[in-house]
Design brief:
Strand content: 35-45%
Largest sheet: 5 strands, antiparallel
Number of helices: 2
């Protein structure tokens, strides 16, 4: 009898922890969303996206980033890796690698956080890097939609 109570308590504890983890992941993702105006066409992974207003949405506890254009016509999701910065950003920041007139999403950093997300280079970006000079371009969420 006592064994069954302990076992039931353990099972209920695991269910509660699982539910809290799911809720905390969703709260984390919601709190890390931000809107940003990107003034040029750009690539996320292998997908081309037009200039415009985008909402940056972390999914899966931040390992996947989703860029959703305001009108919903363009959506891109990409796997990312953790990165850190020496400075504590005061604005949400999106960093691009620029080769000639091509812009490739490279990093995302959140206001008030030393950690961010970085993307691996696509085969297209690697090819562009062989033939062009790299320039880093930073866009922040200064403007509001």
């Amino acid at each position: 009898m006592k064994y069954n109570r302990v076992r039931l308590f353990g099972l209920m504890s695991l269910i509660a922890i699982g539910a809290l983890t799911l809720v905390s992941d969703e709260v984390y993702a919601q709190s890390m969303r931000f809107s940003i105006k990107i003034p040029f066409d750009f690539c996320v992974g292998s997908q081309n996206l037009p200039a415009g207003w985008y909402e940056v949405r972390p999914l899966s506890a931040g390992s996947v980033l989703q860029f959703v254009e305001r009108d919903g016509k363009h959506v891109s999701s990409v796997m990312t890796m953790g990165t850190s910065t020496r400075n504590n950003p005061v604005k949400n920041t999106v960093v691009f690698n620029r080769y000639g007139d091509q812009f490739f999403l490279s990093e995302v950093h959140w206001r008030g956080s030393f950690s961010g997300r970085t993307l691996t280079k696509s085969s297209r970006e690697i090819e562009m890097a062989r033939n062009s000079i790299l320039k880093r371009v930073t866009t922040t969420d200064d403007e509001k939609p």
